[in-house]
Amino acid sequence: MILDITDVIKTINKVKTFETPIELDNFSSRLGDFPITKKDPVNLTIANQEDAALLITGNANLTLEIPCGRCLNPVPTNLSFSIDRKLTLHDGVATDDDMEETDYLIGFEMDVDKLIYAEILVNWPMKVLCKDDCKGICKVCGMNLNAGTCKCDTFVPDPRMAAIQDIFKNFKEV
Prior knowledge:
By secondary structure, the chain is of the alpha+beta class.
């Protein structure tokens, strides 16, 4: 959704509130594509502070389907975050002091979806699990161990004993 914020940028001490829908249907990154299953409209407040700074504040709530970190089943994950950006105004042009370039603000138009995309990146969860005691998948056959057990040999030898095991293998071959 593109918002025209010309009147906010050009009017000193102007404050304007927007309620806009999120048009993103999925979140794509290097990690993969994650569908957005639920999204509430974003409430944004944009304020021009004495023609020196542009403050963007708001809240967003959405739900993404992210695979479990152990068994890879999709997990509905709620993301709720606050938006708090401060841009410096120079001759009616807004620039971000922290990030040299703002891709969500071009001229007098703000792309809300690009702003939300950047906030999702910052608020991405470190690890998502379907349940705390998720057993994951078998390293041999790939079966979901939450659904049942497989008959694969999961014996992992102690790596400290690898040298001795090589000696035993040599004696068995002779």
